[in-house]
From TrEMBL, chains A, B:
Domain of life where this protein originates: Bacteria
Transmembrane domains' residue ranges: none
Residue ranges flagged as DNA-binding region: 54-73
Species this protein is from: Streptomyces malaysiensis subsp. samsunensis
Protein's GO biological process: negative regulation of DNA-templated transcription
PROSITE patterns: HTH_TETR_2
Pfam family, any one: TetR_N
Region of interest: Disordered: 1-31
Keyword Magnesium part of the UniProt annotation: no
Gly residues: compositionally biased ranges: 1-11
Every HTH tetR-type domain range: 31-91
Protein name (record): TetR/AcrR family transcriptional regulator
Taxonomic lineage: Bacteria, Bacillati, Actinomycetota, Actinomycetes, Kitasatosporales
UniProt keyword list: DNA-binding, Transcription, Transcription regulation
Keyword Lipoprotein: no
Length: 240, 240
DNA sequence: CACTATTCTCGTACGCGGTACGAGATTAGG
DNA sequence: CCTAATCTCGTACCGCGTACGAGAATAGTG
């Protein structure tokens, strides 16, 4: 194993995963690298979706044998953690806190949204997995905590707020992506519209019928995001 | 096919899925039912997690051949949609709106949380998939829209709020479940704590070190949920 | 310079997943 | 009864993650 190995049963010990070993003094030299493999996996996910990230396809992208990947990550789950932390590196270094924590928080959310739009598999990956706090993720958390320093929140509450914001962004971006996908497939969009029209016409869903009858607002996703984010952040309190 | 079949390429036409066909007048009688299969899948997911829900295992639970399931759902993705709508049936009938839309919204969120705690696979299932609006889901949406009637929000904004609340609940419950799982495995919890201590000690993460150094609040998940929900709902505006 | 311990590479193989196919069973209408 | 329609399900295919272990490369040792 390139970076050591733990006996831990189920899941990977974060120390073994993120804290680099000093490189063994004997043995064959690695032909690849964790970074290269991770980057290939990210490129694959960006181009063809997260389902295209299979050990076989990643291996062929980097020119390795399939089983060679297991010298760099003990399993696929770990590779996904590496991917998440890898792209999180694009977030740093962010601007230093301005003292206006609400504005800083909004800037953080906007940066996260841009990242997730660039890597559409990220919202799902973040939601499903228990976080593995790699160096890039940690750097960003550190930044968020610094931005929240002017508040009266204690440590746990600050982390809560950060988690809440991240989840909020992930959800909105996931919706945004789904919406875009739907718009890209007129046949499916039409089927959905037909179904909703049928439901609205059945008489058992008056509220829904009314909501759908209203004219569609021609709002850009950016505006929607900014509006909801503002509401959310402005609603956050600084009390204990 | 028990309920008809569409030519739609990719994804299932909601009309074919949710609007029942009149039952064909010829041909062999179905030996199972969509409801029974769905219930079996839900029971399996509740007992052993969503990964235990495979076509083979569901089939053996209901006493059917594997391929017989495909007479009731065209693919596994659809079966998952059926599961989501199935458990959503436990939400209705909710209490009628009281006129205090904030209180109603909080009640809705609490009901959703209880449902998700009963079916821990639900948050993930909701996040990943594009919603398929089955009858039970629709009934609940209808109820939420009615609760929001006293607000000045237009139809689209009401749906937005509902989606936001649902996502919020899903995220908190997912965290809650992960936290419980971590607490149930002391070895993993200890490894995590060791790692965070090492990070805090490296000098590059002062904010994180401070946040972790603070004494842990002994709050119940229920209290945390209620507190964050209150903040969120109270922060929502009724303006356009 | 062998010799050896160590580490990485990767072909093969196993079990399990979703599901296409098609033959046989069952039903209702003519 | 015959025929067309519908449902049942055994078999089979391909792709997945990954265990295993043989072989290749490296660095220290005599």
């Amino acid at each position: 194993m390139v970076s050591g190995d733990g006996p831990g049963a189920g899941g990977v010990d974060p120390q073994q995963l993120w804290l680099s070993s000093p490189r063994p003094r004997k043995g064959r030299k690695p032909a690849f690298s964790r970074a290269a493999i991770t980057a290939a996996a990210v490129a694959l996910a960006d181009a063809e979706g997260i389902d295209a990230v299979t050990m076989r396809r990643v291996a062929s992208q980097v020119g390795a044998g399939v089983m060679s990947l297991y010298s760099y990550a003990p399993d696929k789950e770990t590779l996904l953690h590496l991917m998440v932390d890898h792209v999180s590196g694009e977030l740093s270094p962010p601007a230093p806190p301005t003292g206006d924590w609400r504005a800083d928080l909004k800037a953080i959310a906007h940066a996260q949204r841009a990242l997730m739009l660039r890597h559409p598999w990220l919202p799902t990956a973040l939601f499903n997995r228990r976080w593995s706090l790699g160096p890039n993720t940690l750097a960003f958390v550190e930044h968020a905590l610094a931005a929240l320093r002017p508040t009266a929140l204690d440590g746990a509450a600050k982390l809560e707020v950060f988690s809440l914001i991240t989840g909020f962004v992930a959800r909105l971006v996931a919706d945004e992506i789904a919406q875009a996908a739907l718009a890209g497939s007129p046949e499916r969009a039409a089927a959905e519209a037909r179904y909703l029209a049928a439901v609205a016409a059945d008489g058992h869903h008056p509220e829904l019928a009314e909501a759908l009858a209203a004219p569609v607002r021609p709002l850009t996703p950016d505006a929607t995001f900014a509006r909801l984010l503002d509401r959310m952040v402005d609603g956050l309190d600084t009390g204990p």
